[in-house]
Known about the structure:
- With 112 residues, the protein is mostly helical.
- It is built from seven helices and two strands; from the N terminus they run ααααβαβαα.
- The chain has a single domain, classed as Winged helix-like DNA-binding domain superfamily/Winged helix DNA-binding domain (Arc Repressor Mutant, subunit A).
- 53% of the residues lie in helices and 7% in strands.
- The longest helix has 13 residues, at 14-26.
- The radius of gyration is 15 Å and the shape is globular.
- The two termini are 24 Å apart.
- 15% of the residues are buried.
Amino acid sequence: MKEEIQAEQIVRNLKPFRLFLDVAAQMNTKVVNFSKIGRDVDADTKSVQNYFEILRDTHVGILLNAHDNSLRRRQKMNPKFYYFYTGVARSLNRKLNIPLKRGAYKYGDLFE
Length: 112
Protein backbone atom coordinates (compact mmCIF):
# COMPACT_ATOMS: atom_id res chain seq x y z
CA MET A 1 0.00 0.00 0.00
CA LYS A 2 2.81 2.40 0.88
CA GLU A 3 4.54 1.68 -2.43
CA GLU A 4 1.34 2.19 -4.42
CA ILE A 5 0.66 5.57 -2.86
CA GLN A 6 4.29 6.58 -3.25
CA ALA A 7 4.27 5.48 -6.90
CA GLU A 8 1.22 7.62 -7.52
CA GLN A 9 3.12 10.54 -5.93
CA ILE A 10 0.04 11.50 -3.98
CA VAL A 11 2.05 12.22 -0.84
CA ARG A 12 5.12 14.38 -1.13
CA ASN A 13 6.33 14.13 2.48
CA LEU A 14 6.25 10.43 3.31
CA LYS A 15 7.52 10.44 6.91
CA PRO A 16 4.34 11.87 8.47
CA PHE A 17 2.24 9.67 6.17
CA ARG A 18 4.04 6.53 7.33
CA LEU A 19 3.42 7.52 10.94
CA PHE A 20 -0.17 8.28 10.00
CA LEU A 21 -0.67 4.75 8.61
CA ASP A 22 0.34 3.27 11.97
CA VAL A 23 -2.05 5.56 13.83
CA ALA A 24 -4.84 4.98 11.29
CA ALA A 25 -4.47 1.23 11.85
CA GLN A 26 -5.07 1.80 15.55
CA MET A 27 -8.07 4.02 14.73
CA ASN A 28 -9.85 1.31 12.70
CA THR A 29 -13.54 1.27 13.81
CA LYS A 30 -12.96 4.27 16.12
CA VAL A 31 -14.16 7.87 16.05
CA VAL A 32 -11.49 9.99 14.33
CA ASN A 33 -10.02 13.06 16.01
CA PHE A 34 -8.05 14.75 13.20
CA SER A 35 -6.23 17.26 15.41
CA LYS A 36 -5.10 14.62 17.93
CA ILE A 37 -3.81 12.38 15.14
CA GLY A 38 -2.02 15.42 13.69
CA ARG A 39 -0.21 15.95 16.98
CA ASP A 40 0.74 12.27 17.10
CA VAL A 41 2.24 12.26 13.60
CA ASP A 42 3.60 15.83 13.63
CA ALA A 43 1.31 17.07 10.85
CA ASP A 44 -1.38 19.72 10.70
CA THR A 45 -5.06 18.83 10.86
CA LYS A 46 -5.64 19.57 7.18
CA SER A 47 -2.84 17.15 6.19
CA VAL A 48 -4.38 14.41 8.34
CA GLN A 49 -7.75 15.00 6.69
CA ASN A 50 -6.01 14.75 3.30
CA TYR A 51 -4.33 11.50 4.36
CA PHE A 52 -7.72 10.00 5.21
CA GLU A 53 -8.98 11.20 1.82
CA ILE A 54 -6.06 9.41 0.16
CA LEU A 55 -7.05 6.17 1.90
CA ARG A 56 -10.62 6.74 0.80
CA ASP A 57 -9.67 7.63 -2.80
CA THR A 58 -7.47 4.54 -3.10
CA HIS A 59 -10.34 2.39 -1.72
CA VAL A 60 -8.28 1.31 1.28
CA GLY A 61 -10.76 2.64 3.82
CA ILE A 62 -13.86 4.71 4.39
CA LEU A 63 -14.93 7.47 6.71
CA LEU A 64 -18.42 6.85 7.97
CA ASN A 65 -20.15 10.03 9.08
CA ALA A 66 -21.99 10.04 12.36
CA HIS A 67 -25.76 9.82 12.26
CA ASP A 68 -28.11 12.00 14.25
CA ASN A 69 -31.56 13.36 13.50
CA SER A 70 -30.29 16.87 14.24
CA LEU A 71 -28.23 18.33 11.39
CA ARG A 72 -26.37 20.67 13.76
CA ARG A 73 -25.31 17.87 16.10
CA ARG A 74 -24.31 15.69 13.15
CA GLN A 75 -22.03 18.43 11.79
CA LYS A 76 -20.20 18.61 15.13
CA MET A 77 -19.65 14.85 15.35
CA ASN A 78 -16.53 13.23 13.94
CA PRO A 79 -16.70 10.26 11.55
CA LYS A 80 -15.49 6.73 12.22
CA PHE A 81 -12.80 5.19 10.06
CA TYR A 82 -12.94 1.65 8.67
CA TYR A 83 -10.37 -0.19 6.55
CA PHE A 84 -12.02 -2.09 3.70
CA TYR A 85 -10.74 -5.34 5.18
CA THR A 86 -9.89 -6.09 8.81
CA GLY A 87 -6.70 -7.86 7.70
CA VAL A 88 -5.26 -4.54 6.53
CA ALA A 89 -5.55 -3.02 9.99
CA ARG A 90 -4.15 -6.19 11.59
CA SER A 91 -1.25 -6.19 9.13
CA LEU A 92 -0.42 -2.53 9.77
CA ASN A 93 -0.60 -3.23 13.52
CA ARG A 94 1.73 -6.22 12.97
CA LYS A 95 -0.79 -8.62 14.53
CA LEU A 96 -1.52 -11.02 11.67
CA ASN A 97 0.20 -13.90 13.44
CA ILE A 98 -1.85 -13.43 16.63
CA PRO A 99 -5.00 -15.57 16.37
CA LEU A 100 -8.37 -13.98 17.09
CA LYS A 101 -10.57 -15.69 19.64
CA ARG A 102 -14.27 -15.65 18.89
CA GLY A 103 -16.10 -13.67 21.57
CA ALA A 104 -13.00 -11.72 22.65
CA TYR A 105 -13.10 -7.92 22.79
CA LYS A 106 -10.70 -7.49 19.84
CA TYR A 107 -12.75 -9.92 17.74
CA GLY A 108 -15.87 -7.85 18.29
CA ASP A 109 -13.97 -4.62 17.76
CA LEU A 110 -12.70 -5.76 14.35
CA PHE A 111 -16.08 -6.92 13.17
CA GLU A 112 -18.11 -4.01 14.53
